[in-house]
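Dig into my protein:

:::
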Amino acid sequence: MQQSATTKSHKVISMNIFRRPDYKSDATAFLEQLKKDHPHMEAGQREGRALLWDKQIDRDEGEAFREAKVAQKPYVYQTSNK
């Protein structure tokens, strides 16, 4: 066999075995439909997160709490016999 003088360049295609472009799980489809039906829901979620989790930490106040902490007895349910 003879090779021709001009060689064709072949494009190497790497396949990702986890990528399925046409697949969408039921959970993903449900969430996408829910967000489409209730567009205000994400804003409410952000407000709730800000209310409960996104807090500014006062380091001085935290230090005061640590200094005021009372040592706990080894067994808290033991009655004191004096």
